[in-house]
Amino acid sequence: MKNKKHRISLFIALILMLSNCISDFEVPGDLKDMSDVLVVEGVILEEGTRIFLSRTVKLNETLTQSYLFENVNNASISIIDEGANVMAVAEQYEWGRYVVKEKFSFAPNMKYALDIRVAGKHYRSAFSTPLNTPGIDEISRQINDDNSIDIMVTTHEPNNETLYCLWSFEENWEVRSRYNTLLRYDFQADEVLPQRLNGDNRYYCWASDLSKSLLLASSEKYRDAVIKDHKIHTLQPGNSRYSYLYSINVSQYRIDKEASLYFNNLQRNIDESGSLFAPQPSEITGNIQCLTDPDEIVVGYIFASKPATSRLFIPMAELNLNILEDRSECIEGGQQPDPRTAYIWGYGIYDVDERGNYLYISRRCVDCTQRGLGNPTKNKPAFWPNDHQ
User: Fold this and answer.
1) Of 10, 126, 134, 339, which is most buried with the most CB atoms under 10 A?
2) Residue 299 pairs with which residues in a beta bridge?
3) Rounded distance between C-alpha atoms, residue 271 and residue 226, angstroms
4) Span 228-248, pLDDT tens digits
5) Could you tell me the CA-to-CA distances from 187 to 276, 290, 341, 349 in Å, in that order?
6) Strands 164-176 and 245-254, how do they pair?
7) What is the bridge-based pairing of β-strands 131-132 and 305-306?
8) Where are the alpha helices (DSSP H) in 45-168?
9) Which 3 state secondary structure label does DSSP give 271?
10) Are 282 and 271 in contact (CB under 8 A)?
11) What pLDDT, on the 0 to 100 scale, is given for residue 199?
């Protein structure tokens, strides 16, 4: 399974939670073997539709801790309307990941579905009417006594109708090295290079991550069809998110009551039973059918949506929260035979002594790409508000 960086979201994130649960649930006879079950993730959008395909892989004969997931490749995926017209075609860009690059517009009173052909079989989601999502009124933050930060969303339905919402988000944050050094050893070139703050440095980096759980709420328990200060994420101190500047971009999707029931059943099964397939397995299969074999079980719920998005920046340095970032010890490397050996042993150059000898320290302390969390790179997001390079 090549893609170890596979985004574990919605269904897969919840399914993998089973590895920490123990359940005595008696598996129904028709669900004894849940291997090779297709799992489909995604939302049909007018632009930027991303689809994730995987299959369950059986590891042993018990339900508990018995399944992993492997990516599904070489699928033909398209978005179709009720007239079976192909509106857009997805391309595979990573293992198990597909994206629709072309943009199209939802037509009034038209429904859309996801059509999938893979391994000689034909799958299709139920046709869905795109729902207009109300705007996000506010993304707010709350700093708690333990210096964790809660991210909350407020929205409302203008026509005072019951509102069912699902959220996802992308995080981005600027990562800084512990020390700003003037020299950097380049392993590929096998030479020591001057390190400048013009993009050729390892002082500024940017990292990112995606939401990995079901984020649901409805206005049923609120007055005036308002969902107020609903918590969708919590930042915990002691990692690189606190380094300098943090951003979260929230996507809000309006879903119908049927979709809300499905996702809540999925969540309840996990919370109450410790099992994806209990207590009512039929409720977790979703709205995707195998047209080639209607009895085949498929997990996933695809819907069409016009989402609303909003972004929040949290200036960790200005709030003096950057002191709470990951402060793992920086270990000095002493005298190393040469820069290449020092690099292989996990050290980087941080200074030069009066005799011209290189001084070494843990590479993660002078190379922001080694900070680990969020896979930091020198790829600065286009929307980033400062001029750091």
Assistant:
1) 10
2) 39
3) 26
4) 999 999 999 999 999 999 999
5) 46, 50, 10, 12
6) antiparallel
7) parallel
8) none
9) helix
10) no
11) 77
